[in-house]
Amino acid sequence: MSADSPVGAPGTPSTDPFALVRTRGYIRLLVMAAVLGVPISVGAYGFLALVDALQPWTYTDLPKALEFRKTPPWWPLPLLAIAGLLVGATICYLPGIGGHKPAEGLSVAGPPKPRELPGILIAAVATLGLGAVLGPEAPLIMLGSGVALWLVRLLKPDMPPQAGAVVGATGSFAAVSTLLGSPITGAFLLMEVSGIGGPMLGVVLVPGLLAADIGSLVFIGLDNWTGLGTF
């Protein structure tokens, strides 16, 4: 195998995960991780800002606009019903199932397909904005991995599956870079839920942490530039 031959390409017999590290392609993968960290973390910040604005609007501002003196105790019921209808319609009429199945826990079985991303985004915004779920971790992990793989495959459609798995995980690292307060904390979460283990985990960890560090810097900059603060 030559130094430039991609691991997992047709005719390549090697299945050693670290064979990817020994190629010049891995250096390109690290550069790609740094580049991907910027747009994905910007998108993640915008997603969190949207959710942060929707929750007080639906539970505080909207009741006041309807001339309630304070939010009625029954107010969450119609909002949760609307969230259920939106998620149900997303599952029925859009590709995919709107994200992972909550009954199966926080687990990710590879990046979603590009056509599934709108459904995941709509379901996530509906449930988070209307108060149906507790946190944005799972949607951000799926959206980050799906967007990263989609962007890279626009430029390199013949990317090997092994490299695609690394790119998808890198996008997830960038999306949750500061969600738990530190890129390192987010890395531990992703090591548990990414479904990548053994030697392959070491291959993923370096570009993943690089993307998470870039994402952390972007989050800090946006916190100060927009004045919205930390989510």
Automatic annotation (TrEMBL):
SUPFAM superfamilies: Clc chloride channel. The keyword Transmembrane helix applies. It is found in: Membrane. The keyword Chloroplast does not apply. This is Chloride channel protein. The chain crosses the membrane at residues 29-54, 74-96, 117-134, 140-156, 163-190, 196-222. It is a multi-pass membrane protein. Coiled coil: none annotated. It comes from the Bacteria. InterPro entries: Cl-channel_core (IPR014743), ClC (IPR001807). Keywords: Membrane, Transmembrane, Transmembrane helix. It comes from Streptomyces spororaveus.
